Amino acid sequence: MTNPNPEHIEVLLKGKDFWNELRNENPEIIPQLIWANLDHMDLSYFNLKDADLNGASLWGTNFSFANLENTNLQGVHADEAIFIEANLNDVQASGMQACNADFSNATMTNWLTYDGKLYDSNLTNANLKNSELSGCEFNNCTLINSNFENADLTNCNFTKANLEGANLKNTLLIGCLFVDAQLLNSDLSFANVYGVSTWNIKTNNQTIQKDLIITKEKEPKITLDNIKIAQFIYLLLQNKEIKESLKLLLQRQF
């Protein structure tokens, strides 16, 4: 296991002003904080751009307004960490665990994050446009007014998540779980919703559901304007037995 650079840890402990000044004077130095224990530290406003934090422990760490652009956050443990208005663009964070964390108003575009655990976190107004987030767990997250436009959300779990006002336009929602999720006032237009699970989701007249794609990539494209019936319509089109069962049911009713 690689250890963090002790000199970099020493400088980090001298505070924001000293750290940021040193970084400005030596932009070629990449902070090596691999597997560092930074639990509960106040790193707000720190310039951590390009830092390698692979596997670091960030429990309860405060990164508010910090610059974490292009950092390596793969495998970090950041439960209860604070990323309010942080710059998290172009981050690699596969396997990241950040439950009960606060990402409100953070910029997180072009994330590369597979199988991240973010449940119970606050991502209100977070911007995750153009990100790859396959397999991430957003269970019970607050995602009000979050921006996922053009993101790959394949197999993500949004169970009990609040996506009110969220921008999900042109996203890949293939295989996503939206059980008990709120999608009031959200924009799902042009999203691929093949294989979604939508038990007891909440939508309203302001939920935009234009041209939802319900078929696989190599199948003839079929669209509809209601996510709640997407799975049913697809099964109806593909499964002869369901068609026959419905015919028999209707015959018995009338």
Please explain how this structure is put together:
There is one protein chain. The protein is mainly alpha-helical. The protein is 16% helix and 2% strand. The protein is built from four helices and two strands. The protein has a two-stranded antiparallel sheet with strand order 1-2.
Q: How is the topology of this model organized?
A:
Layout: H1 6-12, H2 16-25, E1 212-213, E2 223-224, H3 230-238, H4 240-253
Antiparallel strand pairs: 1-2
- What is the global morphology? elongated
The number of distinct β-strands equals: 2
Strand count, sense and barrel status of the largest sheet are:
2 strands, antiparallel
Q: Beta-sheet strand percentage?
A: under 5%
Count of alpha and pi helical runs: 4
User: How much is the radius of gyration in Å?
Assistant: 22 Å
- Structure classification: mainly alpha
Low confidence ranges = none
How do the helices and strands follow one another from N- to C-terminus? HHEEHH
| Spatial ordering of strands, largest sheet | 1-2
